[in-house]
Amino acid sequence: MNDKRKAPRAEHDSVLDWVLHEMAGPLTAISGYADIAADPGSPPEDVAGAIEVIRQESGRLLRLTEEIRSMARITGGKPVRVNLSRFDLAELCKGALAVQKLAYPGYGYVLRAEGPAMVTADRDKTMEIALNLLANSAKYSRSGSEIILSAGREGDRGILRVEDRGCGIAEDDLERIFSLGKRLDSGLHTDGRGIGLFLVKTLAEAMNGSIEVKSRPGEGSRFTVSLPLC
């Protein structure tokens, strides 16, 4: 009986820890760069740069609020709300990669869009999926390495795929990485809290989609999200 009582609290603490951790970065950046922008002695180019950083970090906070809403419903045992619409997965990937380059600069990003891929899904939640997978690849890859984002069609499914040349995942860990609070240790510095991949899987399934991963230690990983075509 005690174990049943502890499980929800542990889950709650894990999500709360993630929320506080994810908010700290953007808020710290906004506060610091706001001081630069407000300083009468700051050179114009520094002010312009500070304003751009504030804009970027504000966008990160807005996206984070959507993820928090989703996590609150999931951990509360409620179904994820989806707003299905028809959109081009390739166009969405272009936008996701533009955001990723600002949030995680210093990688060799590649976009492979194999023609239009019109899917029926929730556009905002699909963007959450793409950004979480891209961020995950960046966190587990060395700076300067290649990260590939692909969009296309396979049979009657639209495909969003993220590939990296990072540290990879052992076979025994491939299933548990999608569990809440599970984060893999690696030789690289990472700041994850074991939330992102759990959220990706839950959102994909809420849209009648799925996710699979193929990986080998030392050779990188490939995450493939499948969504219904129109």
Quick description:
With 230 residues, this protein is of the alpha+beta class. It is built from five helices and seven strands.
Roughly how many Å apart are the termini? 47 Å
Please provide the count of β strands: 7
Strand content: 15-25%
Walk across the major sheet and give the strand order. 2-4-5-7-6
Largest sheet entry: 5 strands, mixed
List the helices and strands and how they pair.
Elements: H1 2-38, H2 44-75, E1 84-88, H3 89-103, E2 108-113, E3 118-122, H4 123-139, E4 146-154, E5 157-164, H5 196-206, E6 210-216, E7 220-228
Parallel strand pairs: 2-4
Antiparallel strand pairs: 1-3, 4-5, 5-7, 6-7
Helix pairs in contact: 1-2, 3-4, 4-5
Would you kindly provide a written description of the structure presented here, covering whatever features stand out?
With 230 residues, the protein is of the alpha+beta class. It folds into two domains: 2-75, Signal transduction histidine kinase, dimerisation/phosphotransfer (DHp) domain (Helix Hairpins, Orthogonal Bundle); 84-228, Heat Shock Protein 90, CATH 3.30.565. Helix content is 49%, strand content 21%. The protein contains five helices and seven strands; from the N terminus they run H-H-E-H-E-E-H-E-E-H-E-E. The protein has helices at 2-38, 44-75, 89-103, 123-139, 196-206; strands spanning 84-88, 108-113, 118-122, 146-154, 157-164, 210-216, 220-228. It has a five-stranded mixed beta sheet, covered by helices on one side. The longest helix has 37 residues, at 2-38. It is globular, with a radius of gyration of 19 Å. The N and C termini lie far apart (47 Å). Mean pLDDT is 84; it is low at 1-7 and 187-193.
